Each structure stands twice: as structure tokens, then as C-alpha cells.
Automatic annotation (TrEMBL):
<keyword id="KW-0813">Transport</keyword>
<feature type="transmembrane region" description="Helical">
    <location>
        <begin position="47"/>
        <end position="67"/>
    </location>
</feature>
<feature type="transmembrane region" description="Helical">
    <location>
        <begin position="154"/>
        <end position="179"/>
    </location>
</feature>
<dbReference type="GO" id="GO:0005886">
    <property type="term" value="C:plasma membrane"/>
</dbReference>
<dbReference type="GO" id="GO:0055085">
    <property type="term" value="P:transmembrane transport"/>
</dbReference>
<dbReference type="InterPro" id="IPR002549">
    <property type="entry name" value="AI-2E-like"/>
</dbReference>
<comment type="similarity">
    <text>Belongs to the autoinducer-2 exporter (AI-2E) (TC 2.A.86) family.</text>
</comment>
<feature type="transmembrane region" description="Helical">
    <location>
        <begin position="21"/>
        <end position="41"/>
    </location>
</feature>
<feature type="transmembrane region" description="Helical">
    <location>
        <begin position="244"/>
        <end position="270"/>
    </location>
</feature>
<keyword id="KW-0472">Membrane</keyword>
<feature type="transmembrane region" description="Helical">
    <location>
        <begin position="314"/>
        <end position="345"/>
    </location>
</feature>
<keyword id="KW-0812">Transmembrane</keyword>
<keyword id="KW-1003">Cell membrane</keyword>
<feature type="region of interest" description="Disordered">
    <location>
        <begin position="351"/>
        <end position="393"/>
    </location>
</feature>
<dbReference type="Pfam" id="PF01594">
    <property type="entry name" value="AI-2E_transport"/>
</dbReference>
<feature type="transmembrane region" description="Helical">
    <location>
        <begin position="219"/>
        <end position="238"/>
    </location>
</feature>
<keyword id="KW-1133">Transmembrane helix</keyword>
Length: 393
């Protein structure tokens, strides 16, 4: 064998070994993810409330931190933020949710009538009406079967009702605790791991928390922009009893990227078609597209930053996978989880080093969470101390 051929063979063997190394690592990572997903699904009564509580903490954390920087202790700051949130929630229920529920019956009837008109309208433009009716009938059968399983299954039992109550209580209690003593919980969790790995764990957790916070705040702001922008036109174009539930659905749809905006716009167009005719329905479609384009190109990039740096096909895929694994809750939670995973994968070693707190000399120092003032934690000679003054709450 000539030296050239021997060198080529050695190079091929090296590439094969490298490919095999990558393959088994991917298999290990995939198996780990599958196990985690399986555990999360099995423990969804606990896992979903924890995720929701962390998301609410990321939303309410900034005002809590601001109050603590102004001199309030943990208890007063948390109490003010929680009570203020309850006031806002109560106002939203009184002003929007109750009228939306009252008008939901009319909206459902209008949408059903609008869908009944679609086959004849498609027939006028040359679309096979029989094929559409067959597809629509099949979709209705699937929906009825799913609804039947839902009603006859666990959700109709007292056990499921108890799970819902437990979930709500868990979300409320965990959110209050995270706002009050989340940094202490982080310190305790980090203390369970070897000192050498604490910096990386803290850096990853900080990245995930920041991305989740930007995502939740961004979705709320974008949903509010869409709801107000589209809602103003809906109030003037269609019956207000139909407009209010559509405004609420537009806001909720923002929490389901790509799909939510499309579904809310479709329902608005169908309601306008039945009550006001084709002209107003086309105006509603035009207004919806205009507002959503302005939001997507002007507001969303500034609001989200890189917290939702996901291509639309990826968003559609993760929502589909989330809905298959976790139903409605999985569909809504899949996008923020994917955004967090993408942010963690994009982290560079330099970013990880800069985001991580210092570890005491010789690995003996404790890794501390951010201080009450949100500043860094100062550590020297293996002893750690927060940069903020002592708690008063």
C-alpha cells in the first residue's frame, strides 16, 4: 500500500470515528430528552404549574425588584406586586372576560354560519364543493371524537377537577414564593451540585430565566397591541357583543405564535361575514393583516429581542409537537420552552463566563444568586456576600 493511500485510509478512519462519536452523543442527548419529556408528561400536574409559576415570576419579577431597590423588604414588595396583579386581573375579568363570555354564544353561532357559507363561496370560484364538504365533515368527526374522549375521559371526573384546583393553587403559591425568596431557592439548589459545576448551572439558569421573562413580557405587549389595534376597528365595524370576545381571543392568540394570530383573524372575518357581509369581512381581513404586519415588523423585534429568535416553521413544528405531547397546555408552553433551549444552545463560552458568578478560591466558596438589588455577588477568599443590604422583609 502506498503512503498516499495509507494516509487517505487513516483520514477516512478518523472521519468515521468522529462521525460515530457525534452519533452516539446525539443518541445519548436524544434519549435524555425523551426521558425528561416522558417524566414531564407523567408529572404534568406538577411540571406545568412550575413552568407557569416561573413564567409569572419572570413577568412580575422586575416590579418586585424595583420596589426592593427603593428600600422595601421582601415581604412588602412581594405583597404590593401580588395585590396589584390581583387588582389588574380583577379589572380585566370585569371589563373584558365577563362580556366576552356573555358574547361567546353569539360568536360561536356566527362562526358556524360563516363556515356553512364557505363551500358555496368556494364553488363560485371553481373549487370542488364536494371535496371541501368531505374534508370538513372528516374534520368535524375528528373533533367530535376528540371531544367525546375528553368528556368521557379523565377531564369529566372529580380527579381531573382536583388536578386543576391543585394546579391553580400550586401556581399561586409557587409564584409568591419565587417572588419572595427565589434567590434563596437558587442558592439551595446550587449547593446540591459540585462547586466546579455551579457557575455553569447558574449561568444557564440565568439565561433561561431572562429569555423566558422577555418572552412572557413580549407576548403580553404584542398581544395587547394586536388586541387594541384590531379591537378599535372591530368595535366600529361589527356588533360590540361579537367584538369583545374577538378582542380577548386576539390577545390570547398572541401566546400561540403564528397560529394564534391566524385563527383570531379567521374568526373575526367569519363573524363579520355573517353579520355585516362580504365588504366588511374583507375590511376586517385587511385591518387584521395591516395591524399584524405593523406589529411583526415594528414592535415585535424591539419587544422580543432575541427571546423569540425562532423561524416560523420551527415554531409551527414545536407547537404541533407540544400539542401532541401535552394537549392545549403543551401547545402554549412549547414555544417559550423552545426559545429557552435555543438560547442555551447559542451561548458561547465567553457569555457563560461573564454571566456566571464567581466561585471562591479552591472551589470552596458558595455560588450566590443575584442580590436583592439585582447586582453581582461579591466573593473574596472563598467567602461570599451579597452586594445588597440585609433583608428587611
Amino acid at each position: 500500500m502506498t503512503p498516499d493511500r495509507a494516509g487517505q485510509r487513516d483520514g477516512a478512519d478518523e472521519r468515521l470515528r468522529a462521525a460515530a462519536g457525534v452519533a452516539w452523543r446525539l443518541l445519548v442527548v436524544g434519549a435524555a430528552i425523551a426521558i425528561l419529556v416522558w417524566i414531564a408528561i407523567r408529572l404534568r400536574t406538577v411540571v406545568i404549574p412550575i413552568i407557569l409559576a416561573v413564567a409569572l415570576t419572570a413577568l412580575l419579577g422586575p416590579p418586585t425588584a424595583w420596589l426592593r431597590r427603593k428600600g422595601l423588604g421582601r415581604g412588602p414588595a412581594t405583597t404590593i406586586v401580588v395585590l396589584g396583579s390581583l387588582v389588574v386581573l380583577g379589572g380585566a375579568i370585569t371589563l373584558m372576560i365577563q362580556p366576552a363570555l356573555a358574547g361567546s354564544g353569539d360568536l360561536i353561532a356566527s362562526v358556524q354560519q360563516g363556515l356553512a357559507r364557505v363551500p358555496s363561496a368556494l364553488a363560485r370560484v371553481g373549487v370542488d364543493q364536494a371535496m371541501f364538504e368531505q374534508l370538513w365533515s372528516r374534520a368535524q368527526q375528528e373533533l367530535q371524537q376528540s371531544s367525546g374522549r375528553l368528556v368521557s375521559g379523565a377531564w369529566s371526573s372529580a380527579v381531573a377537577a382536583g388536578q386543576v384546583v391543585i394546579g391553580i393553587v400550586l401556581v399561586a403559591v409557587l409564584t409568591v414564593y419565587f417572588l419572595h425568596s427565589g434567590d434563596r431557592l437558587v442558592q439551595w439548589l446550587l449547593s446540591l451540585f459540585p462547586a466546579a459545576s455551579r457557575s455553569s448551572l447558574y449561568s444557564g439558569g440565568t439565561t433561561a430565566y431572562e429569555v423566558l421573562g422577555r418572552y412572557v413580557r413580549g407576548v403580553a405587549i404584542v398581544g395587547l397591541i394586536d388586541a387594541v389595534g384590531i379591537g378599535i376597528f372591530l368595535i366600529f365595524l361589527i356588533d360590540i357583543q361579537l367584538a369583545i370576545p374577538l378582542i380577548v381571543l386576539t390577545f390570547i392568540g398572541a401566546f400561540l405564535p403564528v397560529i394564534g394570530a391566524f385563527l383570531a383573524g379567521l374568526l373575526s372575518a367569519l363573524a363579520a361575514l355573517v353579520t355585516e357581509g362580504w365588504v366588511i369581512a374583507l375590511v376586517v381581513v385587511g385591518v387584521t393583516i395591516l395591524v399584524q404586519q405593523l406589529e411583526s415588523n415594528l414592535f415585535a423585534p424591539r419587544v422580543y429581542g432575541r427571546s423569540l429568535d425562532l423561524p416560523s416553521p420551527v415554531v409551527l413544528l414545536v407547537i404541533t409537537i407540544g400539542s401532541l405531547l401535552g394537549g392545549i397546555a403543551g401547545a402554549f408552553l412549547s414555544t417559550p420552552i423552545a426559545a429557552v433551549v435555543a438560547a442555551l444552545l447559542r451561548r458561547s463560552p465567553a457569555e457563560e463566563e461573564s454571566a456566571a458568578p464567581k466561585v471562591g478560591a479552591g472551589g470552596g466558596g458558595k455560588v450566590r444568586a443575584p442580590s436583592e438589588r439585582g447586582g453581582p455577588v461579591e466573593e473574596a477568599g472563598g467567602a461570599s456576600r451579597p452586594a445588597a443590604p440585609p433583608d428587611r422583609g
